[in-house]
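Structure tokens please, single chain.
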Amino acid sequence: MQITETSTDGLKRAFKVVVSAKDIDEKVNRRLEEVRQQVQLPGFRPGKVPVSVVKQRYGGSVLREVLEDAVGDSSRQALDERGLRVAMQPKIELEKYEEGGDLAYTMDVELLPDIEPGDMSTLELERPVAEVDEVQVEETLQRIASARSTSAPVSEDRPAANGDVVVIDFAGTVDGEARPGMDAKDFELELGSNQFIPGYEEQLVGAKAGEHRTVTVTFPADYGAAELAGKEAVFEVDVKELRQKVPAELSDELAKEFGVESLDKLKDSVRDKLKGDYAQVSRQRVKRQLLDKLAERHSFAVPQGMVDIEFDAIWQRLQQEIKNGTAGEDQDKPEEELKTEYRAIAERRVRLGLLLSEVGRRNNVQVSQDELNRALIAEARRWPGQERQVFEFFQKNPQAVENLRAPLFEDKVVDFILELATVNERTVSVEELLRDPDEDEAQAA
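Here you go.
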């Protein structure tokens, strides 16, 4: 076998590999002999089928198998002999092959860069922490009670306001024609809930029980029923009763609906949940600081193929957000500006990912099977009633398991670095902790 390095360009390498005809023939003959020992053909005893017959019947498939193995074995040998760590699957192109001749192919690879992580003990970070106070606990309990609210008739003679529930009969038409699903009797509609078409509920604010109103609205252009999208509709509405929401009473009985024995236990549960939520946000904030500092301290070339894959994933999500009108400031930016911006983000992500991977590799950071199993169980719980299908999916898809392992590994490496770094805690308000860090940066600028 001949291996010739034909090109070196940064992290890119190109090779030409030639496997001699003699090696190919030897491997083909060995494989044909194995097949001859195993195959059973009418008229021949097991193991006594002539090689010529086996070659006539199976020669083509054996040759393809041998060629595939030869490419795989020789490409691995070419990389192992040189101690090269590839970033992605090599790109291999076969030259024209004729049976009985040499096998020749070219191989293009991108290598992982040599990374020298900095001294993590010199990092100084700040972890914002917020305390849970009883006001937050009470506000959460009130939201819980509100979610279990009922409605009661309004005793006073007053007009409907947002938050009230109006009991209505209504019938709608489009182009003067009644349509299915556009009428109902004794329907309870909470004003301000945005349950109906935009503009509908607003036209009932101020109505009193016993009043009739004509509501005119236009179906949104992206309405689910295409035949109604963008069309004007007229609803004749009779307001029969005005009701107001009555939150559930904060009591031991309410607590039992959530699986705890008393209101005090429910308060403890709420308090613990808030603590956990704040701790998670706090960790995300310090992790973001850490990644920013690592990005500032480390600069090395990254495989462009990995950047391309990361950029494509980001770009697809962005295009969907633009389509949905949820891209924020990016909604109206020129495409070239967006591509430049997000390619830089993709490159940063790849560089940080490689750096964290190298830190983990050097320090033997590993994800245990128990940790992976817990993550798999948590993922399955996200799909109630489909847990078995989720487990089967992961059993059949090793790459899906790796996608589950990757964030676990990253978090363990981050925790490892945070143990080495100096992390100072700073007490902040809940509002400051929960504020978008991008907003903080914008204000600082």
